């Protein structure tokens, strides 16, 4: 199974809600980035995202977190690609002093499944 992984620090400026929460669209943007990475590595083309068949928001993402977004190929058709996505919080701030801790195991925050399409003239 092919996969791609990105890690990113979640800036406090990305938090828009009480409790320093980040909106769910933040995870979907990261899924777009890591899904594009996967498509380029597999097909030599960015591909076109067709849509999600499921999205589950399982735990909060907060400013100050370090997250890991993963895209994993589940099924490869002639031009379509079914991809599973997972966003994990791997580090979380402990308090307002800047202290943080590595989460072991990581906290699974969002899971999704989607379909991407490679244009007929772009696939090799």
TrEMBL record:
Under CDD domains, the record lists: hot_dog
Domain of life (superkingdom): Bacteria
Which one Pfam family would you cite for this protein?
4HBT
Task: Describe the location of the Thioesterase domain by residue ranges.
Answer: 44-88
Name of this protein: Hotdog fold domain-containing protein
In its UniProt entry, the species of origin is given as Nocardia halotolerans
């Amino acid at each position: 199974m092919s996969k791609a992984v990105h890690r990113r620090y979640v800036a406090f400026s990305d938090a828009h809600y009480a409790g320093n929460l980040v909106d769910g669209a933040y995870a979907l943007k990261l899924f777009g980035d890591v899904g594009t990475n996967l498509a380029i590595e597999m097909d030599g083309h960015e591909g076109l995202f067709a849509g999600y068949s499921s999205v589950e928001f399982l735990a909060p993402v907060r400013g100050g977190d370090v997250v890991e977004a993963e895209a994993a190929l589940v099924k490869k058709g002639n031009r379509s690609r079914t991809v599973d996505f997972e966003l994990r919080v791997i580090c979380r701030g402990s308090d307002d002093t800047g202290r943080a801790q590595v989460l072991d195991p990581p906290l699974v925050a969002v899971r999704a499944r989607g379909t991407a399409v490679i244009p007929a003239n772009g696939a090799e």
